[in-house]
Amino acid sequence: MNPFDSFNLPRFKFASVMAVLAASLPAGLAPELAKATAQQPPSPPPNPPPSQTRPGGGLNPDSSAICAPQNDSLQALVPVETPVLTASAHPIFFFYVPFSNEVVERAEFSMLLWPGELERHYKADILLPDSPGIVGVTLPDGPDYALDAGQNYRWYLNIYCQDGGGQQPDLTVNGVVQRVTLTAAGDRQGQGAAPEIWHDALASAVEQLERSPEDPNAVQQLLVLLQQIDAGDISEVSLAGRATPLSE
User: Fold this and answer.
1) DSSP tag of 52
2) How far apart (Å, rounded) are the C-alpha atoms in residues 83 and 103?
3) How many C-beta neighbours within 10 Å does residue 34 have?
4) pLDDT digits over 200-213, tens only?
């Protein structure tokens, strides 16, 4: 029983209330009230969370794993502010990994549609390169893994260290990427390593250094980008190579 029934109060519906209110207004204001009521703007979408570029620990708080003491050096090479942009349907994600795969039980890269994170776009165990350095993680080719323009995707890199227990990752970093469609001028900026299209700019700088590892200009170009994301403390620009997907 509704507690208000004992008071014999009428149960007005919202539409009835608005009709009574509109009837009491001057003739010129009633249509404006009806128009404003019918055209309430939708709530703006939430802003993506900032990138977690350094782990500061993982989901395993009791970890005494071999690679855990080096967690402050692990870094996702992206800006903190999100979404981080790309013009590529299959972008490359770069990380600075300060240890070799010998101390890693396994690593995992995953991507979910954001907001909500209810739909998985990609997930795979990956094999890190043998040596420490800047590591690239790529999405598989093919339309199933292509990023849709305008959609935000939240990605995670989880690392499970040797002797870390294996149930929860010992180290994790994450961020949000969005694919954008560029104009011809914007495309030229991306090719020229414009930081606004970060993933493409960094990929271009890394690929240039891979082609010309002894070129000081290529080294300097990469260092300038790293300084923009507070990664200038990477003492030596060492390209470890690409991670190898093991399963999907």
Assistant:
1) B
2) 32
3) 13
4) 999 999 999 999 99
pTM of this structure: 0.77
236, two tokens: 């030596």
**What gap in Å lies between CA 68 and CA 46, rounded to an integer?**
33
| Interval 68-127: pLDDT, tens | 665 668 999 999 999 999 999 999 999 999 988 888 888 999 999 999 999 999 999 999
Q: Which of 243, 81, 84, 90 is closest to 152 using CA atoms?
A: 84
Q: Which of 111, 108, 130 is nearest to 120 (CA)?
A: 111
The secondary structure of residue 149, as a DSSP letter, is B
Pick the closest to residue 197 from 206, 209, 186 (CA basis).
186
Across the beta sheet with 104-114, what order do the strands follow?
84-86, 171-179, 152-161, 104-114, 120-127, 244-245
Cα–Cα separations (whole angstroms), residue 160 to 13, 98, 171: 57, 14, 7
